[in-house]
Each structure stands twice: as structure tokens, then as C-alpha cells.
Queue: 3 jobs
Job 1
Amino acid sequence: MPYLPGAFQVKLIVEGMTCGHCVKAVTSAIQKLDGNARVVVDLPARSVRINGAVTPQQATQAIQDCGYNVTGSAEET
Ligand SMILES: [Cu+2]
């Protein structure tokens, strides 16, 4: 699915992601909250964008449980 501006309700800045394995770990952690969530990870920008039924607080908790540090969050419209 192509990127649609504004389609992501949650954007987090996550420290410590370095490779595709990290991307998979973060993505599956989010998809445990919402199996249909769309997750786009941008490693250079350290951003995780989420389109799904997930609050920033839930997503932050899930990512921190994987061992990554969430240093910023924003709710997008
Ligand atoms: Cu990794």
C-alpha cells in the first residue's frame, strides 16, 4: 500500500533500532495490539508510524517491552 499523508494516527521516535530484525520486532509488537495495523518504520529517521487501533501510549509500552527506547510521540490527524 502506498504511503498516504495523514493516514497514520501515531508517530513515535524510537532509539535503538538498527536493522531489519528490529523493524520486524517492533512491527510484530504493534500488530499484537491490532492485527490489522499498518506499521511503517523509517530506520534513518528513527520513526515508527502506525495506522491502526492503537494509542500512542499502547504503542510506546509495546515497543519499550521489546527493549527499545521511545523518545518522542505525536498523534497525527
Ligand atoms: Cu536489529
Job 2
Amino acid sequence: MPRDSAVTWLVVAVVVTVLAMIAFVVFVPTPTPEAAPASANVATPSNVAWTEETIAEVNGGDTVRGMVLARRCEKCHGEEGFSDSGEIPNLASMDKLAFWKQLEDYRAGKRKSALMQPQAAVLTRRDETDLTAYYALLPAIPDPQDTRVKAVAAIDPQAAATAARLVALGDGTRGIPPCQGCHGPVGNVRGAPSLATQNADYILAQLEAFADGSRANDINLPMRTIAAQLNQEDRKALAQYYGSGLGALPGGASPVWKK
Ligand code: HEC
Ligand code: HEC
């Protein structure tokens, strides 16, 4: 009967539609949630990118406001930006981009430190920029009266030679470029601080942290790659070399400051 067949077709159509809907729900994958923001991605070394805007922002700090804010940094980093502990970095005259990036990385948890992360967590971007301006202005040569500057023991000549070679020439056989091509004084890459007045213990700790990946905030991995290629002896020699002031001039000609 035509009427019955119409009903049958209607029932079949409904059943097919329901089955199709069930199949859709079961088999069609749910769309993946929107990509997580870069800050949530642990594989991203840093949220900082060196765009024109960022560079302009970093260079636009207020030195006087920075000086006031720096009061809370002095107990660890020293009144003149020279720390009295070899494990705490000197900040005097630090390269602006490098300084600012490190604060941003601590704030975002991209660089880990039980001491510095809480310090950076309470800073605004403007605070970071102002602190950057202030520390960049502090002279790299400490007050000669300032006895808090750590004396660095005379460096062993063998270690000095090893370090001088790596700093000036690198080591092609291990793919290590010369340090002075990125950290100065020969060349500078964005975000690479001068090491000329940095503390030996701090430098050694950073080279070890890059080598084992516990510090992983270097954009494009230059330092993780280089530090992993250096052996323990090289890392110690380099830390001593810079810590004793030999990195101030190309080839370690003459230390600018030393106690
Ligand atoms: C409680 C001690 C302490 C205080 C206070 C402190 N710092 Fe630090 N800071 C450290 C230590 C320790 C490190 C090295 C941590 C690491 O190994 O990553 C460090 C590292 C840094 C670095 C990275 C330097 C580099 O060469 O990469 C910057 C920049 C810095 N501090 C700025 C500041 C500023 C600005 C303040 C004040 C707002 C401040 N710190 C307050 C202990 C302190
Ligand atoms: C290709 C460029 C490049 C070369 C070559 C290079 N570095 Fe670096 N280095 C960087 C950059 C960029 C950073 C900053 C990483 C970041 O953003 O945290 C850095 C950071 C560092 C730091 C940490 C500084 C601080 O204040 O925390 C140390 C120590 C260091 N380098 C030592 C060396 C030594 C020693 C050599 C030579 C064996 C070397 N580097 C060669 C680019 C380079």
C-alpha cells in the first residue's frame, strides 16, 4: 500500500538520521582546544622576542624611578651593583636587553631561581624597564674603597690559556664559536651580557645549568648547545678567566678592574 510504504520510508529516514548523528558524535573528533598561549608552553625558552617595540620599551626606562626601586635589590646585588657573594651576579652597567630579559624570564617562570623569582614576580613591566635603565648607568668599575667586591684568586696559567683560546677562537672541532663574538668585546648579540665584570662562581653555575638544561631560557639554544660541548675543565677555566677580569679586552690583554 502506498501509505504504508510512505510510513516505512519515513521510519527508515528517521532511523538513518539518528544513526548518523550518533556516528557523528562518536567518531568525529572533538575540535582541539585553542592553542595554549606561549607562556604556558614549557618548550618555549622565553616570552621575550626582540621586536622593534620591545627594544624601544627596554630603552625607555626612568633612571630615577629605577634608583628608588633598586633599594630592594641592594641587599643581594650590592649598593653599586657589585654583589659581595660570588654566587650572586654583579649587575653594574649590565646590558639593557640582557637585564630586562632576565627579569621577564624570572617573572614568567622561564628561568628558575628560588631567590629571584619572588623578587621579579612583584615587578610591573615599567618597574623592570626603570630598573634596567638604572643598573645600565652604574659604572662597571667599582669604587676602590668598596671592599665587598670579591677578590678572585690568581688564575692558573694553563687554565688561562685554555680559556683565552675558547674566548678568542672557540673550538671548531666541537662546534664552539668564540665567546667574544657574542659577549663582546669583539661582537655582541642581543641579550648576551658582557661577562667582563661577572663573578666566577656565578658564571660557573650558569654554564653548568645550561649544560644540564636546568637553565633553558636562551632563545635558539646557543648556550645550552655550547655549554654541553664544554668539559668541566673548560667551564672552570672560563669562569676563572672572566671572574679575574681577563675578559675585559680582546685576548685578555689587561684587566680593567681587579682586587
Ligand atoms: C634575596 C637576594 C636577591 C634579591 C633581593 C634580588 N636578587 Fe637578583 N639575583 C639573585 C640571585 C641569587 C641571582 C642568580 C639566580 C640564578 O641563578 O638564576 C639573581 C639574578 C638576577 C638577575 C640576572 C642577572 C644575570 O646576569 O643574568 C637580574 C637581572 C637580577 N637578579 C635583578 C634583580 C633586581 C632588579 C632586584 C630588585 C628588584 C633583585 N635582583 C633582587 C638574588 C637576589
Ligand atoms: C652565539 C652567541 C653566543 C656565544 C658564541 C656564546 N654565548 Fe653565552 N650567551 C649568549 C646569549 C644570547 C646569552 C643570554 C641567554 C639568555 O637569554 O638567557 C648567553 C648567556 C651566557 C651566560 C649567562 C650570563 C648571565 O649573566 O647569566 C654565560 C655565563 C655565558 N653565556 C657564557 C659563555 C661562554 C663562556 C661562551 C664561550 C665558550 C659563550 N657564552 C658563547 C650567546 C652566546
Job 3
Amino acid sequence: MKAKSSGLIVGISIGVVIGALLAIIGLLCFRFHRKRSQIGNSSSRRAATIPIRANGADSCTVLSDSSIGTESSRTSVHNGVSSWFGGPRKSHVVAASGILEYPYKDIQKATSNFTSTIGKGAFGSVYKAQMSTGETVAVKVLATDSKQGEKEFHTEVMLLGRLHHRNLVNLVGYCAEKGQHMLIYVYMSKGSLSSHLYSEKHELLSWNLRVQIALDVARGLEYLHDGAVPPVIHRDIKSSNILLDESMGARVADFGLSREDMINRNASNIQGTFGYLDPEYISTRAFTKKSDVYSFGVLLFELIAGRNPLQGLLELVELAALNTGGQVGWEEIADSRLDGNFDEQELNDMAALAHKCINRSPRKRPAMRDTVQVLSHILKTRHNKKHHKRSKSDVVITIGQSDRQSSMNSEHRRVESMDSIADSVDV
Ligand SMILES: Nc1ncnc2c1ncn2[C@@H]1O[C@H](COP(=O)(O)OP(=O)(O)OP(=O)(O)O)[C@@H](O)[C@H]1O
Ligand SMILES: [Mg+2]
């Protein structure tokens, strides 16, 4: 009897141990299966398209004006990760921007083996590239021995990849092969504002167009300051960094000196360009949004006077300010090539704004959104005056229409964007 019951106990114990073992094995199998399916899910998430972040009222998600196709030779960084970035974290950040990776050989061919030079700046050479798809782009090749350029490359890819606005020169891709680093931008067929202001080969920029350009730039900067998250300070606003598209729309180029942080107190070298630099920055080495506002003010005076800081622009402004008190009488500094063809009120309003922008005290300078309002108001008033005149002449007799048409044609045929007038705010 005793032997029978002890046999039963042994049997039950063995059964319990086997049961426990089976339960543990089952649990392990279950956990292993769950982990596998989790990995599967996350990799399919990675492969999914991550939308481009677009901020600000005027922002748009169009990557390029040069109508990018879907040709197979370019790889979206959503799918292919460049070895240049090294770590997976960085590549993920770039992937989120949605910019494209171009093969070196395609760029080489499109630039006729890097002979189609447009110009050369601190960053390196810029080439015009005719892609096999028919699109035209601008390729900026990083000078390999330039440390500053290397830094700019990383900064620009990260920043421009996620910033899209109709008044910014959008980055459409990059190439990082054979030890070369290249940035690929929308091609701006009409070149830089500085070339239009100072080169004989371009026809004179009319006053009307200068005000429109000022508003375009103000909008691009407003987006960087108030629309981008986190805000971006440009740090190098000047006429050679304002590029013009086919319809003479102005866009802000070169974010090479930009940083995501608002104030970079550790910068050892002075960044930016002589004459456009905020005096406050030179003494404190702290770049703020108001430093961009200062440079923008210099740019406005450049549009008014048709001369740059190297040609004594600021001395001229200082002298004129003594007479004008910052308000009226600015016409004395107007670009002589305009030959008096400007609206005096508009010129004085724009100069008064420019003067506020270059106030030595950053706190007294307007914000970019204020400059957009003032410039929109100038254009709105112009539009209203034109409209008023037109309806008056319509009553008398419909003459002068052909005159207006021909003056529109001679004025670079810029299509004055009605939305820029419509969304203006009274100040
Ligand atoms: N996207 C573009 N489309 C057309 N031309 C461009 C484009 N980007 C640059 N360029 C032209 O290439 C030339 C060199 O530009 P780059 O920005 O390298 O020099 P920069 O603006 O003169 O000086 P910095 O290096 O200080 O910006 C300029 O004449 C500019 O007009
Ligand atoms: Mg430039």
C-alpha cells in the first residue's frame, strides 16, 4: 500500500515537472514569435514614406520647380541610405526630409564632366546640370579642402531637406560618392540679385520689381524665423544670396551658415559678409533673428540705392539719415539708373523700413513678419491706386490699355502675384 502511494507521488511529481517544462518552452516560443513579428512591423514602417514637414502659412511641399520625375537612376533616401552619413540615426533624419540621392556618374554627365560652371563662392564651385530626364538643376560641389564647406554641407542637407517655401531656393538632392560632397538645388534661371543690380549684361531692374523682390525675400526670411520648427537664422543675407527664378520671383539661397540653435555663443570666427553684419553680433558674437533683420535692412537700401556695402552704401545712408530723420527725403539716395522712375512715397516707405531694420539696437528693429506687412501694404496701395486709375479711365475712354501692356512686357514680364497683394495687412 505504502509502495503504491509513493509510486503515485513520484508519478505526480514527474508529471508536474514535465508540465512545467512544457509551459516554459511554450512561453519561450510565444515570446520569440512576438519579437519576430515586431521586427517585421518596424522594418515595414521604416520603408514607408515619411511625409515632409511643412510649416508656416506660405509653406509648400513642392520639392522642385524643375518638375522632378521618378526616374530610376535617382534614389530617394527613404529607401536607400547613403554610406556617407555613417550612423543610422543621421540617415534617418535625412530620410525624413525626403530629398533625393543622385549617382555621381549622372551628375558628371549632366555637367559635361564638371565644365558647366555658373560661379564659385566660399563653399565651392556651382555647375549647371542638364539631367537626362530633361530637368535642369544647380550642383554645388563642396571644395574638399574646405573645413568650413564640410560643415556647411552637413548643415545644409539637414536644414534644407526639410525646409520648403516658394521664396527659398529648395534643396532637391545630394550626391556623396567618390569622396565628393554635392548639394543639388532648384536651378534659378535668372541668376542672382547682385548680378541684376550691378552687371551691365542685364536690363535695369525697375522700381516696381525691386519692391516685389524685397517682399519675396521678407517672406522667405519670415518663414525661416517663424514658420520653420525649430526657427532658422540665415546668417548671410546679401544680394548674391538672393536668386531669381524664371518669372523674376526672388528666393533666399545658401543656408550654409545657418544653425538650428537660436544663438551660437561659442562661434570663434566671425561668420557672414562684411557690410551686412549686425554690429551687435560683431561685439557679442551672438546671432539672433534680429541679425538677419539687420542684413535685410542693408539689402533693402541696396535695392533703393543700387549700390552695395563695398561701394559705400552705409556711409551714404548715414549721411541721408541726417537730413531725412529716418522718415522722408530718401529719394536723394535713389539709384541714379532709375532716372527718377519710382514712386516717391513707396521709396520713402521702404527706406524708412530699412532704416528701422538697421537700428543699432536689435530690440528696436522690426520682426520679419512686420517687414512683410509693411511691404505688402506698399504693394496693396500701389494696386489700389492702379485699380482706381483704371476704373476712372474706363469711364472716360478705354485708352492706355496697350501702353500698360507694353510696359508690363518690358518689365521682365513678372507676373505680379495677386496673392501677395490679397494677403497683405494694413499697417
Ligand atoms: N540654384 C542656383 N541656380 C542658379 N545659379 C546659382 C544657384 N546657386 C548658386 N548659383 C550661382 O552660382 C554662383 C556661386 O554661388 P555661391 O553661393 O557659391 O557663391 P556666392 O553666393 O557668390 O558667395 P557665398 O559663397 O558667400 O554664398 C553665384 O553666381 C550664384 O548666382
Ligand atoms: Mg551664395
